[in-house]
Amino acid sequence: MGANIIDGKAFATNVRRQIANQVQRLCDDHGITPGLAVILVGEDPASEVYVAAKHKQTVEVGMASFEHKLPADTSQEDLFALIDQLNSDPAVHGILCQFPVPDHLSERNVVARIDPAKDVDGLSVVNAGLLASGETGLVSCTPLGCLMLLRDQIGNMSGKEAVVIGRSNLFGKPMAQLLLQEDCTVTIAHSRTADLSAVARRADILVAAVGRAEMVKGNWIKPGATVIDVGITRIPHPEKPGKSRLLGDVAYHEALDVAAAVTPVPGGVGPMTIACLLANTLTACQRANGLEEIKDLTA
Ligand code: NAP
User: Fold this and answer.
1) I need a labelling partner for 58 at 20 to 30 A (CA). Which of 193, 223, 232, 259 fits?
2) Has this prediction a pTM greater than 0.85?
3) 273 within ligand 1 shell (Cβ under 6 A)
């Protein structure tokens, strides 16, 4: 039980405090309030919870929150009309559409409709391309949060072996790009990777984003590695009937014996995602107004 447990909850609270200070300064010095618009189509209960959490935290840091709840049968035309209106609204600096959307709507087309400068989820092809070419865009929130935790934990990552398990556009690919920018030697593993445990064991930095509970065993981890567990699987609670609990992709208690540092699930990566959404909204607002960006929100 030697590993440092990375407290993402406390870290995210600190990031939000820094953001709140910056928002206050923007307001005091320039009369500007950053604004985040969230679109929810339909009544998916999990999405309702996420949108409510985003609204609460947006307001808490002093930003303006614009919620747009649309019925499940909203046409693509009507959704695009709303996105177009938000794209041209100067009070809105960030736009996100909560996924999943109903089947008749295409997530790809929805993301493509959002102005890349307001795409605070960092999911557009433009922002993915900017990241891949090492240029300035908006970076997908969860990988950005993991990078912040890693920088805090490790400092200089140059030359380290990093293995990212998972290659989604949402997480795995942008995470790998960010680690490459930190001068890590990066491997992206996936469902077809041969001898995954041996690949994982090479990693000084092991990031698991698969969605298979406790897939990464203790003996997959190089002694002294830093392990970031992104995966979330909900299982029935063993002791509380009718309740559920969350498990990560990493066998947490085994990892504690081998790794130098591990993120728990919950309380590790998860809280960083909304904090980074707010960080991206602040950044988008500063850029839209030609103001200096604050690079380090973790000081
Ligand atoms: P995804 O799109 O389903 O991608 C999963 C990836 O895992 C794919 O690249 C897949 O490989 C790979 N994979 C599946 N089975 C595997 C296996 N047996 N061995 C190795 N790789 C395997 O999921 P995602 O959106 O990236 O999310 C991944 C996990 O992170 C989920 O549990 C999600 O809930 C969680 N997550 C959490 C947060 C947060 O904490 N805020 C944010 C985002 C995601 P192939 O490409 O070969 O199919």
Assistant:
1) 232
2) yes
3) yes
